[in-house]
Write a structure and sequence with these properties.
α2 packs parallel to α3, α3 runs parallel beside α4 and α5 packs parallel to α6. The mean pLDDT is 96. This protein has 301 residues and is an alpha/beta fold. The protein has a single domain, classed as Aldolase class I (TIM Barrel, Alpha-Beta Barrel), CATH 3.20.20. β9, α4 and β10 form a beta-alpha-beta unit. The protein is globular, with a radius of gyration of 18 Å. It has eight helices and 16 strands. It has an eight-stranded parallel sheet with strand order 3-16-15-10-9-8-7-4. A four-stranded antiparallel sheet has the order 5-6-14-11, with no helix packed on it. The chain has a two-stranded antiparallel ribbon with strand order 1-2. 29% of the residues lie in helices and 20% in strands.
Length: 301
């Protein structure tokens, strides 16, 4: 009997496969392709205290081995999310992780407090949002800023929190340690890498925002390296993501130290990817006689 269960901050998941925030909505768009019951968790698109319109178009561009996006965290706001999205997800036997975004600490806290009595399992905090009170630098790019917001949210949150780390830093271990020291229950990484594309025929930027977040297979080696570094720097669980397209990719992240794995950009290429990764992990376990999936976590040292 294969045991694919994993545990993060006291929460048990039937398998380690999750959706990466912003690539799966709240599951509604994908439910006709993927049996959400087959996933360890659905991680929702970022939700803020008020509706966000997002950035002007064009805001998505395909690149070699991936895609650039500058969506700008468009979302309907927490009130609509609670009324519409949570009841939809509660129909399924999968964990619910809500991604939270904001432009100030008080924005985040407001969302966290509104979710305190909701039937969701964990909160993933998107610290790649620009901090309006600190000149627009992302919360996740300064260790003190990261620690401050982690501490504030942890003090208010009723569910375990996952701080989602940005790769656009000098030392990922410094950020991982800051999140852990401030009370984060887990960390997830990596978020997108800042990139740019120029349209040579129009001689202008391909994205209206000029820059965007690069995701997809092209970033996987960077993501695996950062997950390995972070997992060896902290004692809290790590959720790995960045370019996962196959079960082999997911297993690579787990060997590097990830307890959970999230599929992102590949959902746009093949909407069945998450379910295929979950099945492929079971096939790998049979092939190598692995009874408990958790036994492979961090075994490459």
């Amino acid at each position: 009997m294969l045991n694919t269960t994993i545990t993060i901050a006291g929460v048990s998941f039937k398998n380690p496969v999750m959706t990466a925030s912003g690539t799966f909505g709240s599951g509604m768009e994908y439910a006709e392709f993927v049996d959400l019951n087959s996933l360890g968790a659905v991680v929702t698109k970022g939700v803020a205290n008020v509706p966000w319109e997002g950035n002007p178009t064009p805001r998505v561009q395909e690149t070699y081995g991936g895609m650039l996006n500058a969506i700008g965290l468009q979302n309907p706001g927490i009130d609509v999310f609670i009324e519409r999205d949570i009841p939809f997800l509660k129909q399924y036997d999968t964990r619910i992780i809500v991604n939270v975004c904001g432009r100030s600490v008080s924005d985040y806290v407001e969302v966290v407090e509104k979710l305190s009595d909701q039937p969701v399992d964990m909160l993933e905090i998107n610290v790649s949002c620009p901090n309006v009170k600190h000149g627009g630098i992302a919360f996740g790019q300064d260790p003190k800023c990261l620690a401050d917001i982690t501490r504030e949210i942890k003090a208010k949150a009723k569910q375990p929190i996952i701080m989602k780390l940005s790769p656009n830093v000098t030392d990922i271990t410094e950020m991982a340690k800051a999140a852990e020291a401030a009370g984060s229950d887990a960390i997830s990484l990596i978020n997108t890498i800042t990139g740019m594309k120029i349209d040579i025929h129009r001689r202008t930027f391909a994205l209206a925002n000029k820059t965007g977040g690069l995701s997809g297979p092209a970033i996987k080696p960077v993501a695996v390296r950062m997950v390995y570094q972070a997992a060896n720097a902290v004692k809290i669980p790590v959720i790995g993501m960045g370019g996962i397209a196959t079960a082999e990719d997911a297993i690579e992240f787990m060997l590097a130290g990830a307890t959970g794995v999230a599929v992102g950009a590949m959902n746009f290429v093949n909407p069945y990817t998450t379910a295929e990764v979950a099945k492929g992990i079971e096939d790998y376990m049979r092939q190598y006689g692995i009874e408990n999936l958790s036994d492979i976590i961090g075994t490459v040292v």
